[in-house]
Amino acid sequence: xxxxxxxxxxxxxxxxxxxxxxxxxxxxxxxxxxxxxxxxxxxxxxxxxxxxxxxxxxxxxxxxxxxxx
Length: 69
Known about the structure:
Elements: H1 2-10, H2 12-27, H3 30-68
């Protein structure tokens, strides 16, 4: 249940930021692109951290399930 919540909420937040920033970069000026790059990198790093946490929880849940069965 916690993994589902993480997937539907925590992952969507940085993904929405990434998509918005890409939209700004696509339609913006060179200055806009320069300003967006650090935020795009930060959102990408945040998404990577969340995905790693989800994978860790899945592996832990699988390990517990295997031990109990």
